[in-house]
Specification:
With 319 residues, the chain is an alpha/beta fold. The protein is built from twelve helices and ten strands. The chain has helices at 25-32, 54-61, 77-80, 90-109, 132-149, 173-183, 194-199, 204-213, 240-252, 270-291, 294-297, 304-313; strands spanning 2-6, 40-45, 67-73, 114-117, 123-124, 154-158, 167-168, 188-193, 217-222, 258-261. The strands form two sheets. An eight-stranded parallel barrel has the order 1-2-3-4-6-8-9-10, surrounded by five helices. A two-stranded antiparallel sheet has the order 5-7. The mean pLDDT is 95.
Length: 319
C-alpha cells in the first residue's frame, strides 16, 4: 500500500521544525521527507502553487524519497463561494472547470495521475434557494468536461454532507456514484473520506464496498472521528473496529489505490502523528489479511465481530 499525506497537516507545531518566518510549500515538503514510511504527497491546487511553480516543486522533490501522487482541488471562495460547477453564472462555472483542468495538467507534469475534486461550495443553505435539477445537471456537465480533458488522469469526487454549505450537492456515496454513472467515463470515480462518511451517517466499510463493486473507488482518505464533524483524528483512535472492517473490505475488493491520511494535528507533532498513522495502518492491514473472508464464510453472524476483537487483543478464540 502506498501512503500519502496532505501537505497542510504538516503546518502545525512550526516551532518544532522551523526557525520562524513564513512556512511555504517547499518547507512543508522538506518536513514530509522526515516521515518514516511515507511514500507520496497530496498537494492542493492552486493553494500550494501560489509562490512555487510545478517545476520548482518537482526539482525539490528529487531531494526526498517522495513523489506527488495527487492534487486536491481547493476552489477559492472568491469567486466560487456561491458554487463552482453549480454556480448560477455560466462564466463562473466555466472558470471552475478551467481551474480543475489546469490541475489535471499540473498533476501530470508532477508525475501524478489523480486529481481529487471536493466541490466545497456546491450546495445550498435554504429551501427554495435553487433548483436541485439544475445543480445536478451542471455537476454532471462539469465533471464530464474534466474527465474528458485527459483520460489518463483519474478524477475522484470527494463528497461531504455539509460544510462550508449547510447542505452539499454531493453529500454521500450514493449521490457521488450517481454522478459517476451519469458521466460514464472510465477515469471518473469516488474518493471516500472516512470522517465525511461518518458525518453522512454512512457505515464507511459499506460505502467503500458500493464503490469497489463498480471499480470506482479511486482513493481513501483515512482518519478517525466521532461522526459529528470532520474531526480528522489519528487513525484507529476512535473507531478501531470499523477501520479494521474497512481495510478488510478494501483487501477483498482488490483496492489498488493510495491510502491518504487526511488528519488535522493541532497540538500533536505532525511528523510523529503521520508516522503513527502509517504504523497502525500497516498493523491493521496485517490483521485484515489474517481475518480474510471470515464474514462471508459465516454470513449474518453477529459473533463475527467478537472474533475480530479477539484477533486484535490476542485472545484465544472461542467456538
Amino acid at each position: 500500500m502506498i501512503y500519502a499525506t496532505r501537505l497542510n497537516s504538516l503546518k502545525s507545531r512550526p516551532e518544532l521544525y522551523f526557525d520562524g518566518g513564513a512556512v511555504g510549500t517547499l518547507d512543508l515538503i522538506r518536513r514530509a521527507g522526515e516521515i518514516e514510511g511515507l511514500g507520496a504527497l497530496s498537494l492542493n491546487y492552486p493553494e500550494h502553487f501560489a509562490t512555487v511553480s510545478p517545476q520548482e516543486a518537482l526539482a525539490f522533490l528529487s531531494s526526498t524519497d517522495l513523489t506527488v501522487d495527487s492534487l486536491n482541488i481547493r476552489f477559492p471562495e472568491d469567486p466560487f463561494g456561491t458554487g463552482g460547477f453549480t454556480n448560477p453564472s455560466a462564466k463562473v462555472r466555466e472558470a471552475a472547470i478551467d481551474l480543475t483542468r489546469r490541475a489535471v495538467d499540473v498533476c501530470a507534469e508532477l508525475g501524478g495521475d489523480h486529481v481529487i475534486v471536493w466541490p466545497a461550495y456546491d450546495g445550498f443553505d435554504y429551501p427554495f434557494q435553487d433548483s436541485y435539477q439544475r445543480m445536478l445537471e451542471h455537476t454532471v456537465e462539469g465533471f464530464a468536461h474534466v474527465a474528458a480533458h485527459d483520460p489518463q488522469t483519474r478524477v475522484g469526487i470527494e463528497y461531504k454532507p455539509w460544510e462550508p454549505r449547510k447542505q452539499s450537492m454531493l453529500a454521500n456515496m450514493g449521490e457521488a456514484l450517481l454522478v459517476v454513472a451519469r458521466v460514464d467515463a472510465p477515469n471518473l470515480g469516488v474518493v471516500m473520506d472516512y470522517c465525511h462518511a461518518q458525518m453522512a451517517n454512512e457505515h464507511p466499510p459499506k460505502a467503500a464496498a458500493l464503490a469497489l463493486a463498480q471499480e470506482r473507488l479511486f482513493g481513501i482518505h483515512l482518519n478517525d472521528g466521532y461522526g459529528r464533524q470532520d474531526d480528522g483524528l489519528m487513525v484507529g483512535t476512535s473507531s478501531l473496529i470499523t477501520i479494521v472492517e474497512l481495510l478488510t473490505v478494501m483487501l477483498e475488493g482488490d483496492y489498488g489505490g493510495t491510502i491518504y491520511f487526511d488528519t488535522f494535528p493541532v497540538l500533536e507533532d505532525p511528523v510523529r502523528e503521520c508516522e503513527w498513522n502509517i504504523r497502525i495502518s500497516e498493523r491493521l492491514l496485517t490483521i485484515a489479511q489474517e481475518l480474510g473472508t471470515s464474514a462471508a464464510a459465516s454470513p449474518h453472524n453477529g459473533f463475527n465481530v467478537t472474533r475480530v476483537i479477539e484477533q486484535i487483543l490476542g485472545f484465544e478464540r472461542v467456538p
